[in-house]
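Record type: ASSEMBLY
Status: queued
Input:
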Amino acid sequence: MIELLAIEWLKIKRYRTFWILIGFFLALLLLWNYEASQGNINIGGGRKNHGMSIVNSDYSFPQAWGSTGYWGSIFIMFISIVVIIITTNEYGYRTNRQNVIDGLNKMKFYHAKVLLVVVLCIASTLCVVLVGGLLGWLHSHSFAGFFSGFRQIAYFFLLALDYLGFALFLALLIRRSGLAIGLFLLYAMFLETILWAIINAHTNKPYGDLLPLQASDSLLPFPYPAMIKMMNVVPPSLSMTTYLMTTCAWCAVYYFAGRALLLRRDW
Amino acid sequence: MASILSIKNISKSYGPIQALKGVSFDVPEGCVFGVLGPNGSGKTTLLGIVLDVLLAKGGTFSWFDGMPHDEARRQIGSLLETPNFYHYLSAYDNLEITAAIRRKGKDDRDRVLKQVGLFERKDSKFQSFSLGMKQRLAIGAALLGGAKVLVLDEPTNGLDPAGIAEIRELIRELHKQGITIIIASHLLDEIEKVCTHVAILKKGDLLLSGPVDEVLVSEDQVEVRAADMAGLQQALQTMKGIKRIKLVDTTLQLACETDVTPVQVNEFCIRKGIVLSHLLLRKKSLESKFMELTN
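Status: finished
Output:
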């Protein structure tokens, strides 16, 4: 396991694209959440204290975790694209072949990538802890309630695993960088929303929440301010247990589908 | 001699096209083994299968008398089809990855880079290399950690004549050191000059395989002429060891078995009362042999 990760590390440690995209994730997470905590991200804004905020700007603990986690769930796109690029690179450079020729095998190659995905999930979760912790402290100057909402952090880890697992599977399936990134964005940003709307409309229940990426998105819902929650316009949802189990199930599906795909085809 | 690689009845198809049809042969230790065939004859497919990047439809193969494949591949330096490296990394960093996968020390990188003449460019990115340099780096990577066996698929692709000669020298040198080399090529010259054994493939069929001096001398041609060509032809048809007789212009070309010498042909004709006006042993070049076999 350590050997496989060491090999992956050699591949990325001097890969500029990798570090730039990771940097985007961290920078956006920090800047966006900071502005949100300052109440500067508003609808109809443009000047200080102008417009209506539908984003929770209360970053005291434990709200800091849910808010940072929610915005992290959008910026995780960058890390997903990183996963797609480093995986399709192997096909583009035909280094997937060379790695096997030199002594790995298909499954080791696959597990190296799966391990890298897990490490990236841990790293992005740490980013969320860092940013959420920093802003929570800045907002309230106290660490009271630091651990009370900490399960949101575990949710973020699962969400990252769901996104990156999906990205890895798509990259292995399509093998071409541009097409895989295009399809990933198309699905994550539009297609799933369309499917979600269709399913919800036809079943009259929020079953659309069970779709691959939506399942984990539902673990970290939009950080509505308390006032909007009281107005009872927050959409209906299923239980957290359902979302948790569905997310884990999708992760397992990506893993086994990727494995079956690689075992079946030529390299 | 122990066999390094033993291939038994390997077959492979791409859709309706049969790329390999039950190919079997053994590669003895310490030889330079040429896998020969025109483009599309299945050379790369065969090497891809024994290196575990392609799945065979049927048949088996074993390295080093049944060593587990992953372990065996770490002992084998291979270059398959194209030089495959991370474009954004330097030659040095790329070799570090190869060394890590093969579980060899990375200290060997300087040696192999010097051997293939890329030491001065060790910190240049792979994407800045010319085709010839990429090919050299791939050969360097194959040499890393002192491989016992080298598998080289078209190793002189993209090299200039000097580069080709260098690679040939390198192969000879490595052969002297006792390294077994399996080399696939459609360049006959390349094979003829360095190989001790060959296997010839055509459209997925193994036409023949064995030591070069057995496989390729077996069909030497003897050319004869005499005043009475018709009588000569008739007489020679009764001679043992002559497989085919062909009249080309004014000369008879005899395809003979290995043990038939021009002396025997001459003696035979004299006994039949025919005096030859022309007698020539034509060693078949690999090229004409190859054309005959594959056309």
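Annotation: The mean pLDDT of chain A is 92.
Annotation: The two ends of chain A are 22 Å apart (CA to CA).
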